[in-house]
Amino acid sequence: MVSSPLPLFKALADDTRLQLVLLIMAEGEVCVCEMTHALNLSQPKISRHLALLRQSGLLADRREGQWVYYRLSPALDAGAQAILQHTHHYYHSQVTVALERLQQMGNRPERQRLCC
């Protein structure tokens, strides 16, 4: 849960973190290896940003075997949800290329075979 807007805005102020959140919102749930492929960034960089997003209360994760999947935290309050929905609506184009890269990978489990 985000109790104050400050951590939310700090978390979204970085371009990589904003793209990660928008990508997750577009897909619902995304694996770390899918994010590295979609954004063309290293796994350590993606993981560092995901850790900050988790600490800020924006994301939740789940492990499935060797893969870790991220989604928006179900504990987000209504204010944070509204901000994220508006951000996604107006800035969805920020992840168009990333979404195209994901589509080129196919669907799961094909994606997992390609990147993990």
Automatic annotation (TrEMBL):
Keyword annotations from UniProtKB, A to Z: Arsenical resistance, DNA-binding, Transcription, Transcription regulation
Record flagged with keyword Transcription: yes
Top-level taxon of the source organism: Bacteria
Domain HTH arsR-type span(s) in chain numbering: 1-91
A GO MF label: DNA binding
Entry keyword annotation includes Transcription regulation: yes
Entries under Pfam families matching the protein: HTH_5
GO BP field: response to arsenic-containing substance
Name of the molecule in the record: Metalloregulator ArsR/SmtB family transcription factor
Organism: Oceanimonas pelagia
